[in-house]
Amino acid sequence: MKVIQLIDSLAVGGAEMMAITIANSLVKYDVESYLCATRSEGNLKLKINSEVNYFFLDRKRTVDISSIIRLKKIIKKNKIDIIHTHSSSYFIATLVKLIYPKVKIVWHDHYGNCEMINSRKVQPIKLFSRFFKEIIAVNNLLKNWSKNTLKFPRVYYLPNYASFNNSKFKTDLKGIEGKRLVCVAGLRPQKDHLNLLKAFKLINYNHKDWTLHLVGNKYDDEYYLSLKKFIHTNGFQDVVFLYHDSIDIENILAQSTIGILSSKSEGLPVSLLEYGLAKLPVVVTDVGECSNVVTNNENGFVVEKENEQFLADKIDFLIKEEKLRKEFSIKFHKHILDNYSEQEIIHRLLKIYNS
């Protein structure tokens, strides 16, 4: 079997990381694996294994004829069976299928703003979905959306999974070892870093030696500027640190003490699974699939979204209770290995490909 993962960019992000992770994994399961970035590259390119055949289209426009023809030639020349297209890259995948009907399309829906799914644009996806063989959803809400809204019959829920591979880059976190809070999430409004910053402000009164580390792509927009303003206004320049475009996540998490997600909307965040692989105790908001991954009070804490006091209380509790941190980290690590392993997810994916 020959499969190409199709993604618009290789900037640091959840869908982009999953496209690469799947491409890397498939090599181990007797699949000839390809990956193609359509619009732009990025630091994540460094995470592509050498066994994966990589292409970059450098697409300049929405309908870029030369890119469509080039992708079709790549697929035809290499006799690729399936285009596994991620997020919005379904558009160019479908245009290729129109001129090369033999190839099959599997669309992977990573839509992260699930709490606003009713405002999602339906018509473009519904129009193009008639050319899809299967749809993969990263959570059950998206699965039901495809079934009920798109009226698409062959939809599968396939959870994300995490996989670490060595990086040449080595980020050194500031602050004191054993007293670092980390949040791995792109600097976008749905991740609600401001909620976490407000919670940290409450925590900082009693825990001056603890630091907060925000790891994620920045976009130099109003949201990013609002975070910078909050940090500056509260004099947090020496206790809150931003890390842009970092890809050595395993190394970063190895230096961290507690993993946090404060999102107001999610699918199934890869970073949460990475926290588990790294044996971190976690505090997460109750959005998307988070409460299905973390069992509250059993292997971590799940709190109400957009409530800095609740978030601060649970972080504060873990800061004070080192024994509980250890207990949570062991249980959560085992849970991730048992339920979100590469082997389990790839076997399910291969069944979808072969259905």
TrEMBL record:
MF (Gene Ontology): glycosyltransferase activity
Domain (Glycosyltransferase subfamily 4-like N-terminal) ranges: 12-160
Domain of life: Bacteria
Domain Glycosyl transferase family: 177-329
Official protein name in the record: Glycosyl transferase
